[in-house]
Design the sequence.
């Protein structure tokens, strides 16, 4: 019986990192809730995900972007702009934390309990936030070498 346990443990151990990365398909389903406010539109103007939403910023290229700096979006809250000025760059860790509770994230990041986010949406779980990150990241612009 022991020889079958080791392969099962190895399979489980190798599956865990993929799960922690997020599931793009689940993220696509979860993005349906986001598309009322957000779109993923590439530099050519092609809509890759969502609709022609304008309430929130375009999420194309958001990963690695300084917070509050999407060039075609001018309606950021003062705390979001302040977070960007303080050095907030959208990494997986911060993006996932932000999606779970945008206001608490900004309050913590800025050490200001009066800071508020204009985004009222919160993900149901960290897994859903990771899935959304994986989905958004799948549209990342390619880097020229």
Sequence:
């Amino acid at each position: 019986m022991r020889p079958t346990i080791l392969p099962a443990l190895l399979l489980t151990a190798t599956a865990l990192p993929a799960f922690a990365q997020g599931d793009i398909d689940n993220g696509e389903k979860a993005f349906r809730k986001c598309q009322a406010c957000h779109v993923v539109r590439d530099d050519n103007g092609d809509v890759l995900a969502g609709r022609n939403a304008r309430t929130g910023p375009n999420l194309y290229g958001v990963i690695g972007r300084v917070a509050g700096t999407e060039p075609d979006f001018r309606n950021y809250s003062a705390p979001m702009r302040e977070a960007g000025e303080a050095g907030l760059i959208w990494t997986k860790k911060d993006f996932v934390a932000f999606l779970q509770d945008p206001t608490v994230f900004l309050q913590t990041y800025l050490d200001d309990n009066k800071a508020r986010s204009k985004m009222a949406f919160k993900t149901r779980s960290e897994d859903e936030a990771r899935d959304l990150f994986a989905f958004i990241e799948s549209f990342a612009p390619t880097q020229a070498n």
In short: Helices lie at 2-21, 24-31, 78-85, 92-100, 102-110, 126-137.
